Amino acid sequence: NFMLTQPHSVSESPGKTVTISCTRSSGSIASNYVQWYQQRPGSSPTTVIYEDNQRPSGVPDRFSGSIDSSSNSASLTISGLKTEDEADYYCQSYDSSNEVFGGGTKLTVL
Amino acid sequence: EVQLVESGGGLVQPGGSLRLSCAASGFTFSSYWMSWVRQAPGKGLEWVANIKQDGSEKYYVDSVKGRFTISRDNAKNSLYLQMNSLRAEDTAVYYCARDSYGLIWGQGTMVTVSS
Question: Stretch B22-44: mean pLDDT, rounded?
Answer without folding.
Answer: 97
